[in-house]
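Minutes, project huddle
Topic: does the predicted pose make sense with 2-acetamido-2-deoxy-beta-D-glucopyranose bound?
PN asked that the exact inputs be recorded in the minutes so nobody has to dig through chat later. Recorded below.
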Amino acid sequence: MVKIFDMAILSISRNSLLLLFLLASALARPSAKLETRAVTDASLKAVSTAFSKAGIVPGVIPVFKPTGILDVVFTVPTTQKAVNATPGTNLTTQQTANEPNFVLTVSDTTIASNAEFVVALFDPDAPTPQNTTFAQFRHLLGAGYRWNADTGVLTNTTAALTEFVPPAPPPKSDPHRYLVLIYEQSEDFACKVPSILNASTPRTNFNMTAFSDALGLGAPFAGTFFFTGPSEST
Ligand SMILES: *[C@@H]1O[C@H](CO)[C@@H](O)[C@H](O)[C@H]1NC(C)=O
Ligand SMILES: *[C@@H]1O[C@H](CO)[C@@H](O)[C@H](O)[C@H]1NC(C)=O
Ligand SMILES: *[C@@H]1O[C@H](CO)[C@@H](O)[C@H](O)[C@H]1NC(C)=O
Ligand SMILES: *[C@@H]1O[C@H](CO)[C@@H](O)[C@H](O)[C@H]1NC(C)=O
Ligand SMILES: *[C@@H]1O[C@H](CO)[C@@H](O)[C@H](O)[C@H]1NC(C)=O
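Predicted holo structure (tokens), as shared on screen:
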């Protein structure tokens, strides 16, 4: 007993403290993605249930069987705090003002490490959930996203097809649903896309299903959605 106790005392040497510090730093690093959820049958089911409950499946996209978990992390301009758009979260226009980070958690890291992804953020409730004359409204569309296996963050390697504009539902509108979907990029995406969508394609009356069909994207790989209502000052 005494021997073990002595060893414990001895082990708190300067080197050990340094080692402990290094270990703590290493452990602290993944906490950058601390709010992300693991990929389990339950977490995937929770996402698809939320999509059905919000009428997104089949109202906006015909099917959604996610195999990855997506976290959409906004940085609030005034506080620099991170907010995570997990499925069905209510966010304000202030919270969603900046282009978010896309954090993907997958079980098959080999596929994710070798794939490129298409990221779409769009509004099926424009100008209001009751009158969808302008829907879908494209808030962001980009391809060539690569997955960082350490952080889970998806980073674009090419310019956006449609640059991010923040949610801005009109005054008095009910909150809109904002969908973020991740697709595995098809082989011929880059050569096919210019004739289908380019700088002159209006953001309004977009059809994600028609777009993904035309480019052979198949069903989305991961996704989330959040609600945002008009800014309180309007
Ligand atoms: C989000 O806001 C709606 C009202 O627009 C409310 O019914 C719902 O409970 C809120 N959800 C959460 C998780 O706070
Ligand atoms: C729907 O919204 C559009 C655009 O604001 C408007 O022109 C149109 O009159 C609205 N339709 C109805 C039925 O309210
Ligand atoms: C990635 O997207 C950002 C924001 O749209 C853009 O400024 C940047 O140039 C893009 N990166 C590349 C490599 O195109
Ligand atoms: C740009 O996209 C539109 C569809 O929005 C398409 O009709 C048009 O042919 C495309 N332009 C080019 C130069 O491919
Ligand atoms: C969107 O495209 C799909 C597939 O082409 C089609 O079935 C659907 O009716 C379209 N939705 C709208 C609102 O045009």
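Observations noted during the meeting:
- The chain has two domains: 1-34, 35-228.
- The longest strand covers residues 137-147.
No decisions taken; revisit at the next huddle.
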